[in-house]
Each structure stands twice: as structure tokens, then as C-alpha cells.
Amino acid sequence: MSKNKNTFYTEDIKLKAIEMKAEGIPVKVIKEKLGIKSDSQVYTWWYWFRDGELNRLKQPIGKQYSFGHGPKLTTDDKLSQLEAQNKILKKYISLKGGLIKK
Fold first, then answer.
1. Helices first, then strands: H and E counts in the chain
2. Residue 13: which of 39, 34, 40, 27 has the closest Cα?
3. Is 74 helix (H, G, I), strand (E, B) or coil?
4. Angle of CA points 19, 45, 10, to nearest 5°
5. 25 alpha-carbon distance from chain centroid
6. 101 falls within a domain
7. Residue 64 located in a structural domain
8. What is the structure's pLDDT at 66?
9. Structure-derived torsion over alpha carbons of residues 86, 91, 95, 99, reported in degrees to the nearest 10
10. CA distance linking residue 78 with residue 57, whole number of Å
11. Could you tell me if residue 28 is inside a domain?
12. Residue 41 forms part of a structural domain
């Protein structure tokens, strides 16, 4: 009985998990709805989003790119990332009742 350790999640699944977390949905529910194995995976994606590292959502299993050494992004890729980030941020801000104070 061989159990596959590595599960690949599409960028869409990762973005959906981030969006759900921004809406305040508990990680346990996110995992169940999206079929994600571990809490830490959801938190990792959330931290990447929070830190503005959405480019990391495209990296393949086992690849950990350091700054500036990741895959080259096209203008369309950058635009899609910014649109996704903007959508999630707008939802997050609306749920928090306005702008976040520093």
C-alpha cells in the first residue's frame, strides 16, 4: 500500500483557499471543502498572499525559489496575479469594515 505524500494543488485551489480565509472561513472548513490535506498548507498560502508573494503559488512541488530566482512571469501572468490579489484584498477590507490601520 503506497501512499502518495505529495499532492499538487492548482493555483485556482490555492487562490480559493486564500479567498475563503479572507472571508473568515475556518481553516478546517476550507480543508474539507477544497480537499486540502493540512492546515499548514492553507496557512502557508495565506502568508504568501499577506506578504505579496503570489508568484509562489505557481511554483511546482519541491521547488522553493529564493527572491528573483523563480519562474519568469509574463505581463499577462503579472496582471492576473494583481487582479486576483486586488479581488481578495477588496473582499478582505469589506469584511473588516474598512481600511486596515497600521
1. 4, 0
2. 34
3. coil
4. 80
5. 14
6. no
7. no
8. 56
9. 20
10. 12
11. yes
12. yes
